Amino acid sequence: MIRVLLPAHLRTLAQVNGEVKLEVESPVTQRSVLDALEASYPMLRGTIRDHVTHQRRPFLRFFACAEDLSHELPDAPLPDAVVTEAEPFLVIAAVAGG
Amino acid sequence: MSTVRVLVGTRKGAFILTSDGKREQWNVSGPFFGGWEIYHLKGSPADPDRLYASQSTGWFGQLIQRSDDGGKTWRPVDNKFVYDGVSGTHQWYDGTPHPWEFKRVWHLEPSLTDPDTVYAGVEDAALFRSTDGGQTWQELAGLRGHGSGPHWQPGGGGMCLHTILLDPANPGRIFIAISSAGAFRTDDGGESWRPINRGLKSQHIPDPSAEVGHCVHHIAMHPSRPGVLFMQKHWDVMRSDDAGESWQEVSGNLPTDFGFAIDVHAHQPETIYVVPIKSDSEHYPPDGKLRVYRSRTGGNEWEALTKGLPQHDCYVNVLRDAMAVDSLDACGIYFGTTGGQVYGSSNAGDSWTPLVRDLPAVLSVEVQTLS
User: Fold this and answer.
1) Which residues in chain A are closer than 8 Å to B79, comparing Cβ atoms?
2) What is the C-alpha separation between B344 and B322, in angstroms, rounded?
3) Which chain B residues are within 8 Å of A10, Cβ to Cβ?
């Protein structure tokens, strides 16, 4: 299982508390995690990445293992610690708005 | 007894205000979708329990919410707004070509007859329609494709399609307005469109009388007389008596003819309301006095309505979709301010009371009169 932590507003939208756990087939990548997330929670489609281009929304970042993975290729493997459930995959909303 | 439901969209969520027909005591529920911008929410005339809401933020983009029980519960429906075919370009602020990019839904207009059909006016300007209760959206691409689209430019608030008027006497006829392109009309249900801006004059464009390029802020219509339109333009209050074929200025004795909101009395098609705003760079009422102006003559002759409204030190704005009317016998008028007040009048504007004072900045106000 892959652990995913969403920003508060997306947890509200998806009606989940705390982390989401997802079954993701290998290889575990940003794309495969987000595909699995959107399949389980269709209301999140378009809120993290664009419907058509699948580009990450500009004010969101992807972190894991104290690293910013936002600019990694979507098909790059995620760290082993994410795959083994030791660490969550974090979707982070930018601190903005004054 | 009748019930009135006021649907309020704000910068940080939606609120629903309800009262009986006396309109003296108001119950406030919400915030719904707290923390999100609710540009607009509106109920279906065919099924008042069916509501649609436009929910967005810069972080997470656009969502559309739907309620089937009058706003008690909501569920997200489809939020995929994809321009039809090649999206093309419009003009950017500096006049260079800029690709059409979807940003948000400004206005949702449910069909007059079918609860599952709803129109969405979006930024960058385009008109979408759903015929399945918001499960899917399709662009009515004839609007952007009719020819003038590459010449449209954004206004200060973005290039938004903010007004959608459905003609109750002619199912094929729809009026829309775009800042800062102007007004447009279809007579065939959205297949083909043409600009309807003859008579508008805008000094901020090279040809003040150009076919497109006018910053129309809002248009209102009385359902019994759909060929008569009233417009609050960036500057100037206008009227058309021929379904937009031509426009005449009716600003008359207004203290300023800049403003955003305009609406029509529910039972008197020649009685109209505006809220004059000082100027395009000073988005607050003149002299710190919040005044609604009413004309009983379809324009030109205006009276200030001040009773119950702040008459000193008031510097709020009233945005284009933030005024609405109920259809009770003594017509109720409602408007919301960027200071978070929603004011109501149960006597056609003669006097006003705040329904609620301290909401986030109000973006839109719609009213449902329920029997």
Assistant:
1) 45-47, 51
2) 12
3) 60
Give residue A96's pLDDT band: very low, low, confident or very high (50, 70, 90): low
User: What are the tokens at B192?
Assistant: 């083909």
CB B60 to CB A93 under 8 A? yes
pLDDT above 80 (res A97): no
- The domain total for chain A is 1
**Domain assignment present for A12:** yes
End-to-end CA distance of chain B: 7
pLDDT confidence bin for A93, thresholds 50/70/90? very high
Domain range for A37: 2-93
Residue A98 lies in a domain: no
Cβ within 8 Å of residue B227, ≥6 positions away: B240, B241, B242, B243
**What's chain B's length in residues?**
371
> Cα–Cα distance between B94 and B87 in angstroms, integer?
20
**Average pLDDT of span A73-95:** 96
User: What is the value of pTM for the model shown?
Assistant: 0.97
In order of A26, A86, B76, B108, the CA distances from B111 in angstroms are 47, 52, 19, 10
pLDDT number for residue B1: 81
Low-confidence ranges of chain B (pLDDT < 50): none
Question: If you measure CA to CA, which chain B residue comes closest to A14?
Answer: B76
| CB-CB contact of B125 with B88 (8 Å) | no
DSSP calls for B23-52: --S-EEEEEESTTSEEEEEEE-SS-TT-EE
Inter-chain residue contact B58 with A96, CB threshold 8 Å: yes
- Min distance A43 CA to chain B CA atoms (Å): 6
Which positions ≥6 away from B129 have C-beta within 8 Å? B117, B118, B119, B120, B137, B138, B140, B190
Cα nearest neighbour of B77 on chain A: A43
CATH code (residue A31): 3.10.20.30
Strand partners, B165: B175
Which regions of B118-267 does DSSP assign to beta strands (E)? 118-123, 126-130, 138-139, 160-166, 174-179, 182-186, 194-195, 216-221, 229-233, 237-240, 248-249, 258-264
pLDDT at B45: 98
CA distance B156 to B260: 13
DSSP per-residue letters across B247-285: -EE--TT-S--EEEEEEE-SS-TT-EEEEEES-SS--S-
B82 touching A (Cβ < 8 Å): yes
Residue A54 lies inside a defined structural domain of this protein? yes
In chain A, the N- to C-terminal Cα span, in Å, equals 37
Is A89 within the bounds of a domain?
A: yes
